[in-house]
Specification:
Elements lengths: L2 H19 L6 H18 L6 E8 L4 E7 L7 E7 L4 E4 H6 L5 H21 L11 E8 L1 E2 L1 H6 L8 E2 L11 H8 E8 L6 H17 L6 E7 L15 E8 L8 H16 L10
Parallel strand pairs: 6-7, 8-9
Antiparallel strand pairs: 1-2, 2-3, 3-4, 5-8, 9-10
């Protein structure tokens, strides 16, 4: 094989590789086509609203672009538009949200508040303060969100849920105060040697004290503690002792009778789930 033939084969190989890769790669042509189509789409569907493209990304697995559009300066008024590589919008986040009687900006506002509440709860509750030797744990602060229609039609929406319908984009909310009616604190402790109702009550009272010191409101608390796994291979077994207190109202957290309340909550929780008791002690 002479040098000329080798060069031709190399060039053909390069062209073939490029041809095979094109469907999976972004390129200036598809960038230009999709960006222009999204800009025209915004003018036609959201005229005068001020939306601008602020970022874009290419999904090579599905061969499409994702454009994030927003009103400049807004924290919440943004959404994604998905478009095929060479044109053809197939997902508009704004319109998708509206199908569920929610505006995308309200979803973004909910996420902003959820994240902020989780941040302040985690910073107030240093779980390491309450852990015993060998145990480890996590703390979360959450808000539950739902539409009024969901709340009216479904019986599994908690009473402390905040309605998307009431959220105002870019409004500054007092997240600490909001937590009093809508906040849920979740504490999970694993590998706890001291499995008892009294131990759970100690954790709950510790959390209440820390939340009050930080002036963080809370509607209810979920606490679970589980023993070290007993399996020979180090795995957890179905009947390993654990206690879970499900959404104990914050207003019911007092030192008096708390151990009894923990026991009653735990047994009622298991009855609702159909799970067997795994802790059989008194305290």
């Amino acid at each position: 094989m002479n040098k000329r033939t080798k060069k031709i084969l190399i060039i053909i190989s390069i062209i073939l590789i490029i041809y095979l890769l094109i469907p999976f790669c972004k390129n200036p042509v598809s960038d230009f086509i999709t960006r222009r189509e999204v800009e025209n789409y915004l003018q036609e569907n959201y005229p005068g609203m001020g939306y601008e493209i602020i970022s874009s990304g290419f999904n090579f697995l599905e061969s499409h672009y994702r454009y994030t559009v927003a009103i400049p300066g807004s924290k919440d008024d943004h959404f994604d538009i998905h478009i095929k590589k060479y044109g053809g919008i197939y997902l508009d986040g704004y319109k998708t949200a509206q199908k569920f009687n929610i505006y995308e900006a309200q979803i973004n506002a909910a996420q902003r508040l959820y994240t902020e509440y989780d941040r302040i709860v985690e910073s107030a509750l240093d779980i390491n303060e309450i852990l015993s030797d060998g145990s480890h744990g996590t703390v979360y602060g959450t808000f539950e969100f739902a539409t009024r229609k969901e709340y009216e039609e479904h019986n599994d929406i908690p009473v402390y849920a905040y309605f998307y319908d009431d959220l105002v984009a870019d409004k500054e909310y007092d997240v600490k105060e909001m937590g009093r009616d809508h906040g849920r604190v979740i504490i999970s402790v694993q590998h706890e040697e001291n499995i008892s109702y009294r131990r759970v009550a100690e954790i709950i009272l510790w959390a209440k004290e820390k939340l009050e010191d930080a002036d963080i409101g809370c509607y209810c608390i979920y606490v679970s503690i589980s023993s070290p796994p007993s399996g020979e291979d180090g795995s957890a077994q179905y009947m390993d002792p654990y206690i879970a207190v499900n959404d104990l109202p914050y207003t019911e957290i007092t030192e008096e009778n708390l151990v009894k309340k923990v026991e009653e909550n735990y047994k009622a929780y298991l009855e609702s789930t159909g799970d067997p008791l795994t802790y059989l002690g008194e305290e």
